[in-house]
Design goal:
The chain is of the alpha/beta class. It contains 8 helices and 27 strands. The chain starts with a helix and ends in a 7-residue tail after the last strand.
């Protein structure tokens, strides 16, 4: 039986970074840049004002105070997007708005609050001159040309995950699209005669197909595109026909049918139409787990068969499907964000498997504390609903006691870069 780490490495060895695609900028959020991006322009293109104020020659503000202002003649005004035709001289100033190019002759900007403009307006005076109320150094409130990026500079490196700020940076270069590693298409197929589609009447003895929704939501959360194939019944023909619908997938996930029961056909189909890399992992929940390759219409597709119990399916996804999707996306951080917390619950590990218990984690002061969400059965989906982390009991640890330090995988921390 493989350890969790051995199984993870086996899964990752079967997947590669996908090919790039060119997409509109707003559709690229969270994806990985597939090329180095060099700037074809200088940003900002000219020295410009960082404040609303007055463009001056700094040396001519020497000695200026509220009681002895330096009076300058106002000759013009310039707004963002326009260039002043006037030039600032030792005795003149130009009123300037934030973002406007700095006029010739000026080397500083005095903000409105450091002038007597408000008093002059309150007195009903026409602004033909202005009083500067403080000395200013050269360069004050001026953003220099190229201080953000110069023409020809490397703006963004290949492998960068595009967050809103990177999307904005690309837009500032005039780019409308970006070349990014494409998102993997992940086929999802639930199996079992007991399953009923959500929205349909629920006959006695049946359950709704919740796994498709939780797995598809996990796929989407981590950057993949779910392709929902519905429900396959517990017979070889139904399962084979359903699998054929996933011929275009980059990863194929089935739920249920991977144990040793009479109607667990997934391993048999996998053996017939591909190869099995492993089918058991030393973990709880999620011990019966099939992984290998499916050959669908001549294409070899990595296949992960997770257990049918809803908690087992989700925990197995986090450990194996999630890092595979991230690798295909070109992400570098594949490990789940993990913290050290103090356990506020007792948890028993009875069978020498790694036990992923569902927990609620809170930070108090500088420390994290974790408590179990309640009963830990693999069919109790609300144990996931009530938690934000997976508290880990190692294989060689029989129990975690109150006050013990434990590792916790955080379910709700987004650190996939």
């Amino acid at each position: 039986m493989l350890t969790v780490e051995e199984a993870q490495q086996k899964v990752l060895s079967y997947v590669d970074v996908l090919e790039p695609e060119e997409k509109p900028l707003l559709e690229c959020s969270g994806q990985v840049l597939a090329e180095d991006v060099y700037s074809t322009i200088t940003i900002p293109p000219m020295d410009n004002s960082a404040m609303d104020g007055y463009a001056v020659q700094a040396q001519n503000t020497c000695g200026a105070t509220p009681s002895t202002p330096k009076i300058l003649r106002l000759i013009s005004e310039v707004a963002a997007g326009y260039i002043s035709e006037q030039e600032v001289s030792p005795e003149t100033t130009i009123r300037i708005m934030t973002g406007a190019p700095v006029p010739k002759g000026a080397d500083a900007v005095v903000q409105f609050e450091d002038t007597d403009e408000e008093e002059r307006r309150a007195a009903g005076k026409t602004l033909v001159e202005i009083g500067i109320l403080r000395e200013v150094p050269p360069g004050l409130s001026i953003r220099r040309a190229g201080e953000d990026i110069a023409k020809g500079d490397l703006a963004l490196s290949k492998g960068t995950v595009l967050r809103p700020q990177e999307i904005g940076a690309l837009a500032s270069l005039g780019r409308t699209t970006a070349s990014v590693i494409r998102r993997p298409l992940v086929a999802i197929l639930s199996t079992g005669d007991e399953l009923v589609n959500v929205g349909e009447p629920l006959p006695p003895g049946k359950i709704y197909n919740s796994n498709t929704f939780s797995l598809a939501a996990q796929v989407r959360r981590y950057g993949g595109i779910p392709k929902i194939l519905g429900i396959a019944r517990d017979d070889m023909q139904s399962l084979t026909e359903a699998i054929d619908q996933g011929h275009d997938a980059d990863l194929f996930i089935t739920s249920a049918g991977v144990s040793v029961g009479r109607y667990d056909f997934v391993k048999d189909v996998l053996a017939k139409h591909g190869e099995i890399a492993f089918w058991s992992v030393r973990m709880k929940p999620g011990k019966p787990l099939a992984f290998g390759l499916l050959t669908i219409r001549g294409k070899r597709v990595p296949h992960l068969g997770v257990p049918g119990n809803p908690v087992s399916a989700m925990v197995s996804f986090e450990q194996f499907a999630r890092p595979a999707i991230l690798k295909m996306l070109g992400k570098k951080k594949l490990a789940k964000p993990t913290i050290i917390a103090i356990s506020e619950s007792r948890a028993v590990n009875s069978d020498e498997r790694r036990f992923f218990t569902r927990a609620m984690v809170e930070k108090r002061g500088e420390k994290y504390f974790a408590r179990l969400t309640g009963p830990q059965g693999s069919g109790i989906l609300t144990s996931m609903v009530k938690g934000n982390g997976l508290m880990i009991i190692p294989e060689d640890t029989k129990s975690i006691e109150q006050g013990d330090e434990v590792q916790v995988q955080m379910l709700d921390w987004e650190e996939e870069q």
